[in-house]
Description:
Layout: E1 10-16, H1 19-29, E2 36-43, H2 52-55, E3 60-64, H3 74-81, E4 87-92, H4 97-105, E5 110-113, H5 118-129, E6 134-135, H6 137-150
Parallel strand pairs: 1-2, 1-3, 3-4, 4-5, 5-6
Amino acid sequence: MAPESTKQPVRVLLANDDHIIIEGLRAMLAPYDDEVEVVATAEGDPEIAVAADTRMYVDVMLIDAYTRAAGGIDAAVKVLAEDPPFAVAVFTDANDLRLMLQALRVGVRGYMLKSSKPPDLVDMLVRIRDGEVVIDRRLATEATLLAARTIDLGDW
């Protein structure tokens, strides 16, 4: 018999400008409560405020890359500017290499697509909590193929 994991569930803050998206994510993650626990939510556009008494209980903030009032990752940039004690991950339907690179440049530690299956999303959240930078597999493959096409391999 394998030993039980001593890791606590990833404590997640769900941030979005649509309440229905937050509740949908909460419901989707509920069956995985041994690995992921939604400890807080934040609604805003793009002024997502994280209460000071909540910040210390969060491992990963999962935030949409787009809001009605702001394009790109403006909300994530504002949260990261406050030097939070948690990782910020983008959850988006934008399969966009430029947006992914922009997110990584500002300090986002995860870029996940909304088409992710729940077990994959849970795995990515755990890996982000554990210190990894995680990019959705499909987008990472696309980035690798693009990089391979643009590098002159004749010098190797």
